[in-house]
């Protein structure tokens, strides 16, 4: 069955070093979307931007090659790919001879697209510092607000309030205090999040309390971001909204979901904790 409990998460695993596409474990998105009332056409566009930092294979002469990989999974795909299975799959290339990068990209694209149920974009870059600058998410940081907080879950959308008596604003609000937990292992997932919107001003203290209320919440990265998007849209009614979470890596992978009411594609800025 394709549920988190049947995935490799939390289980003793033999790390194979040969290619095996069957290691990829898809999990349907719809069950968690049902929980937040997304049962028809998606109210958002977007993609999940994955970065892999532990990708290696052998060239035609048997010499190891390393690279960084970026994978973009469309939000409209029917499945997410469970991250430990993704790691096991990528690790399987470590003793595989691959003709060239084009051949590897073709294999990765084919296998990952099949698992997600939609076309995935794959990009490989050299494992060198140039072109990989560290930067912050653009926006106003709300973490320094002097407020008392004593609610750490479950997520409380009631904290989200917009002042409709004020003129429309266009701004981005950022927090580095996002934390949620793996729904199977309970391990914490740490992230930064950017809420970019156009609409009535959102109360920053309420937004911060709302984000902190994910602290003991058990849900995958992609599911948390979709929950945030739906809650902000329903409670604050912005004209335009995008939510971008940049999570710290685990097992050589970081997952960065982006959801927007527009059709723009996100950049892939590496944060200080990535």
Automatic annotation (TrEMBL):
<feature type="binding site">
    <location>
        <begin position="83"/>
        <end position="84"/>
    </location>
    <ligand>
        <name>NADPH</name>
    </ligand>
</feature>
<dbReference type="InterPro" id="IPR043133">
    <property type="entry name" value="GTP-CH-I_C/QueF"/>
</dbReference>
<dbReference type="Pfam" id="PF14819">
    <property type="entry name" value="QueF_N"/>
</dbReference>
<dbReference type="GO" id="GO:0033739">
    <property type="term" value="F:preQ1 synthase activity"/>
</dbReference>
<comment type="pathway">
    <text>tRNA modification; tRNA-queuosine biosynthesis.</text>
</comment>
<feature type="binding site">
    <location>
        <begin position="221"/>
        <end position="222"/>
    </location>
    <ligand>
        <name>substrate</name>
    </ligand>
</feature>
<keyword id="KW-0671">Queuosine biosynthesis</keyword>
<feature type="binding site">
    <location>
        <begin position="81"/>
        <end position="83"/>
    </location>
    <ligand>
        <name>substrate</name>
    </ligand>
</feature>
<feature type="region of interest" description="Disordered">
    <location>
        <begin position="255"/>
        <end position="274"/>
    </location>
</feature>
<dbReference type="InterPro" id="IPR050084">
    <property type="entry name" value="NADPH_dep_7-cyano-7-deazaG_red"/>
</dbReference>
<keyword id="KW-0963">Cytoplasm</keyword>
<comment type="function">
    <text>Catalyzes the NADPH-dependent reduction of 7-cyano-7-deazaguanine (preQ0) to 7-aminomethyl-7-deazaguanine (preQ1).</text>
</comment>
<feature type="domain" description="NADPH-dependent 7-cyano-7-deazaguanine reductase N-terminal">
    <location>
        <begin position="15"/>
        <end position="124"/>
    </location>
</feature>
<keyword id="KW-0521">NADP</keyword>
<comment type="similarity">
    <text>Belongs to the GTP cyclohydrolase I family. QueF type 2 subfamily.</text>
</comment>
<feature type="active site" description="Thioimide intermediate">
    <location>
        <position position="182"/>
    </location>
</feature>
<dbReference type="InterPro" id="IPR029139">
    <property type="entry name" value="QueF_N"/>
</dbReference>
<protein>
    <recommendedName>
        <fullName>NADPH-dependent 7-cyano-7-deazaguanine reductase</fullName>
        <ecNumber>1.7.1.13</ecNumber>
    </recommendedName>
</protein>
<feature type="binding site">
    <location>
        <begin position="250"/>
        <end position="251"/>
    </location>
    <ligand>
        <name>NADPH</name>
    </ligand>
</feature>
<keyword id="KW-0560">Oxidoreductase</keyword>
<feature type="active site" description="Proton donor">
    <location>
        <position position="189"/>
    </location>
</feature>
<dbReference type="InterPro" id="IPR029500">
    <property type="entry name" value="QueF"/>
</dbReference>
<dbReference type="InterPro" id="IPR016428">
    <property type="entry name" value="QueF_type2"/>
</dbReference>
<dbReference type="Pfam" id="PF14489">
    <property type="entry name" value="QueF"/>
</dbReference>
<comment type="subunit">
    <text>Homodimer.</text>
</comment>
<feature type="compositionally biased region" description="Basic and acidic residues">
    <location>
        <begin position="262"/>
        <end position="274"/>
    </location>
</feature>
């Amino acid at each position: 069955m394709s549920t988190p409990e049947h995935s490799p998460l939390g289980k003793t695993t033999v790390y194979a070093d040969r290619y095996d596409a069957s290691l990829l474990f898809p999990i349907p998105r719809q069950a968690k979307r049902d929980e937040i009332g997304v049962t028809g056409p998606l109210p958002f566009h977007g993609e999940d931007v994955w970065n892999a930092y532990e990708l290696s294979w052998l060239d035609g002469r048997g010499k190891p090659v390393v690279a960084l990989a970026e994978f973009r999974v469309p939000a409209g795909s029917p499945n997410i790919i469970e991250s430990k299975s993704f790691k096991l799959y990528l690790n399987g290339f470590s003793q595989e001879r691959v003709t060239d990068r084009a051949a590897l990209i073709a294999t990765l694209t084919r296998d990952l697209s099949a698992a997600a149920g939609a076309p995935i974009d794959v990009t490989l870059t050299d494992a060198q510092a140039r072109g990989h600058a560290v930067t912050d998410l653009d926006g106003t940081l709300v973490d320094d607000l002097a407020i008392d907080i004593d609610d750490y879950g479950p997520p409380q959308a009631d904290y989200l309030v917009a002042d409709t008596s004020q003129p429309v604003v266009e701004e981005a609000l950022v927090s580095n205090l996002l934390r949620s937990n793996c729904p199977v292992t309970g391990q914490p997932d740490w992230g930064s999040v950017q809420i970019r919107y156009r609409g009535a001003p959102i109360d920053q203290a309420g937004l911060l309390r709302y984000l902190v209320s994910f602290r003991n919440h058990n849900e995958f990265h992609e599911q948390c971001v979709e929950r945030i998007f739906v809650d902000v849209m329903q409670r604050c009614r912005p004209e335009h909204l995008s939510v971008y979470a940049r999570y710290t890596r685990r097992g050589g992978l970081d997952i960065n979901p982006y959801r927007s009411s527009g059709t723009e594609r996100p950049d892939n800025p590496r944060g200080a904790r990535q």
